[in-house]
Amino acid sequence: MYRRRVKKQPKPVFGESLEDFGYSIDKSSGLVDSEGKQYVFDLKAPNRDYQEAHCHALTRAVRRKIEDRLAQDYGFVKATIPVGLDATDSVSPQAYIMLS
Amino acid sequence: MATIHCPPSGELAIIPGIESPEKHVAYVLKHVVSRAKSNEIFFIGHQYGCHALLNSISEQFDTWKDRVSACACIESSHTVLGYNVDGFPAWVRQNVVGYVMSSPEERGKTTYMRPQGCNFFSTGTIEFDHTVIEAMDPIFRFFATRHGANKRSVEPRPIHPDDPTTLTLEGLGDDVSVMLDQGFNDSNDASGDTW
Question: Where is the Arb2 domain (chain A) (predicted)?
Answer without folding.
Answer: 14-100
